[in-house]
Amino acid sequence: MRDYTYIGIGSKNRTDKLEDFTVDMDQIIPCFLNEIKDRTIRIINFDPQFENNFLDKYFVSKGFDKQEDGVWMTPDNRIEALIIPRQVDTDSAFLRDMISVTIKHNKKLVVQMYTGRELSPIFRNLYFKFLDSEKQYIRENVLFDITYGEEGHCLTPMSQHSPMLDPNGNFYNFILYNEEQMLESIGLLPKMDRLIEAYVMKKLSKILNENHVNYRKSVRGEPLLFDSVHYGIFAKPEKIMGVLLRETKEVLNILAKLGSLSKEKQDLFNECSKNYNEVDMYRWYSDMTKLYK
């Protein structure tokens, strides 16, 4: 097991001309890996569109030697790279198994996807399946998405993104934090503050949309549309609204510490917290969306 593993998904080269293949395009060996010194690295790239002619020229230009088993290796054996020309199912057990191996051997893991699909929900779902005793290690040593939700497409500019690290070299993984942990992380890095704000604004939109759709359906006695870890499929409207308001308040607390919550929006939330069963449901929802617009 290597000290540090990077997994690229959908990371095929954007051009077949090596002379045009810039650092910003390089998702095969991202430039942030150059900052990792004196540690062994394994690079695994998945994409069914990989083509050997380009790869041969690329790895030779990087000083790698091709081994008999098809693995590319630096002369000192510190870095190895595997190219797997097929798709990987991110909903399979593969990524969970990789996290488990990382924990078992006390290593680090970075996963990056370039298909346009957001990795954060996948990571959070996997994270909550692990034991509480393992979660701190995952937060500090496993990172899905070095762009933190900003960019996960095939045109991601690689020189602009890298893992954010604390003074001990551990990952900042704010998407896995609870409210208290996220509040404690605010003010540590300006970049992280900006990313947290974007993340919680997106989260707020999801909280309001999914819970309020369920609330309306529950009021009408219809089956709920969205699953929730906080209530079942037969939940009463009051239960659903309680979850919506509690989770919204948590986001607003974070925005307040970031300095991004205006008095008008706080007053709006206070009013909507009281009048949700007195006004038209659709008008109420429209008013609440002003919290993130």
Principal-axes geometry comes out as elongated
SS elements, strand count: 7
Poorly predicted runs are none
Strand residue content: 5-15%
Number of domains: 2
Strands in their spatial order, largest beta sheet = 3-4-5-2-1-6-7
Q: Can you write the helix and strand succession as a string? A: EEHEEEHEHHEHHHHH
**Any idea what the radius of gyration is?**
22 Å
In summary, what is this structure?
With 293 residues, the protein is of the alpha/beta class.
Describe the protein:
The chain is an alpha/beta fold and 293 residues long. It folds into 2 domains: 4-176, no CATH class; 190-291, no CATH class. Helix content is 41%, strand content 11%. It contains 9 helices and 7 strands, in the order ββαβββαβααβααααα. The chain has helices at 52-61, 94-104, 120-127, 132-141, 179-185, 190-219, 237-258, 263-275, 281-288; strands at 4-9, 41-46, 65-66, 72-73, 79-84, 108-113, 142-144. Strands 3-4-5-2-1-6-7 form a 7-stranded mixed β-sheet, with helices on both faces. A hairpin with a 5-residue loop joins strand 4 and strand 5. Helix 6 (190-219) runs antiparallel to helix 7 (237-258). The chain is elongated. The protein starts with a strand and ends in a 5-residue tail after the last helix. 26% of the residues are buried. The model has no long low-confidence stretch (mean pLDDT 95).
